[in-house]
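@channel sequence for tomorrow's demo:
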Amino acid sequence: MSKIIEQLYKDNQVMPLLLKRKMGMFEKHKDIAEEFEYWIQNGKYVSDSPLEIEGYTAERLAREISNLDGEGAFIMLIELREDPQKAIEKLKGGFKQK
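structure tokens (generated this afternoon):
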């Protein structure tokens, strides 16, 4: 379990049940968790060989889609990996473009 991610959620008073659910998501996708940790610690996205899932990086998601900066971008990477078709439909139709 990532102590860095867990501490961010605790600092933001995320409810215990939601905390457990989110931490479980990052446990299943350790590579995405590592980039999220980098973002938490450095305040910027990985620029040297970032993860790309279905053509999206966390930075691209944050740049192109409103409300997906930071944690939201990494959660969306998980969604893109687990259910690409549903996530892409969500990106195209459910989020306001910047």
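heads up for whoever presents: The mean pLDDT is 89.
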